[in-house]
Amino acid sequence: MLFETFRENRRKHPSSPAFLVSSGDRSVPISWKRFTDDIATVCWIIDRHPQHKTIAILGENSYEWMVAHAACLFAGAVVVPVEPALNASEISRRLSFVGATMLLHSSLYAEKAHETAALTPGLATGGFGTRKTDRFISAALSALGFGRKNIWRRQFVDAGRTAMLVFTSGTTSEPRAVELDIRAVETFVKSTTLALEMHRGDRSLMLLPLHHIFGIAATYTMLANGVALGVCPDFRRVYDAAERFGIDFAFLVPALADILASKIAHRGSSAKEALGQDIRWILTGGAPLSRKTYDRLSALGIKTVSGYGLTETAACYSMAVSPDAPRPASAGRASQAPGVETAVSPDGELLVRGPCVMKGYLKMPEKTAAAIDAGGWFHTGDRGRIDPDGYVYIEGRMSRTIVLSSGKKVSPEELESALLSIDGVEEVLVSGKGESREILAEIYAPGREKDVEAAVSVLNGTLPVYQRVRHVKFRGDPFPRTASGKIKLS
User: Fold this and answer.
1) Is the pTM of this model over 0.85?
2) 3-state SS class at 263
3) 25-70: pLDDT as tens digits
4) Can you give the residue ranges of every domain in the chain?
5) Helices and strands in the chain, H and E counts
6) Using CA atoms, how far apart are residues 383 and 412, in angstroms rounded to an integer?
7) Which CATH architecture has domain 2-381?
């Protein structure tokens, strides 16, 4: 479906912008014709080097990154997105594990790429925009002539093979290489297209990190719908990018949604006043959105909806049905994409099966068997429920449930949500302390510690005795986070 959609955009809308890039004080469009020509060129190069069957990509968000990724998908290579924040030693370890023989990188990460190659026997490297790469591109263009060897003249039939190896961004466990086929990403595209309002000619941002499945899936969804993507390599410039490219909507993690809301509020009473046009909606995923951020965006006239999924399900499980019918506490309605089934186990775990589910964890058959049962159901590890209308509610990780010495069970996420509603609380992590498992709240509330401590006492008065926060610990710095914005758990 993705391949055919790209080919149709090339044929029917060759001059329409696929991307928007900054050049000085201007926004410069890159057409669908140029985008698909570049993909075809890189596909030709990949075809000429069949020894490189598994190709890694290291770099900030960029047009070139997406050309390389799409070319790997359509040429039949296995593509491995690399988290730029990792050091060379960890990147080498991961690439050796998956058997990558080529590392494509941006100029910004050239030094790290070369350090990685020095640590990884048999690993070749190639940089975006280098002289060597430019020579390859020129040779490919000459050889292709965009004749019968052009990728867009072929039939794409191998949608079930492993196309991507995406490392999980879990908060506690060792990252695992998740095997995904193109159908898994296509299922996210179908699910999101059914749920949300997107039109050809709309504008949005390529802002989510592309080494994370949510960023990859959201980007392909927008491209498939003919949305022009403003390239924003620096997430800290989310407001500047929204203003420059004139976005109609956005896919964001909660931390970025909060940054955008804060900057808009600083410049006006609404998105239209601050940016010059309305933002129809923002979809957040990767981590829960706080009620505080939801209310702030709503006050600015921006409808905010949520989605839920995991790397193992290509970010697909549930999606907000419409910004016009928000349910703030919900992660949206269970996916309506063909073939996707959702359920809740007897002990309250959310389950899913269908084309969005991974093929498995690479080289980890026991862990794969533990995650996907004999009936094909993937066990998400999340507690939750699905209401009669099909809306999904996430109640926390099964592994984080606090079992008190009395046998009572406490959901730390439920308490965290309540604590985040206290003025001054910016971040919080709830856990059980010691053998008694008494409730401990670790809080980041710079300069507001005394006020927050008093507010926690008031909150305790509204809670059942077993749920009360017995210990409060204040942090001097924010919690470390994963690429998707989740707090890292020790």
Assistant:
1) no
2) helix
3) 788 999 999 999 999 888 888 887 878 899 999 999 999 999 999 9
4) 2-381, 402-474
5) 15, 25
6) 12
7) 3-Layer(aba) Sandwich (3.40)
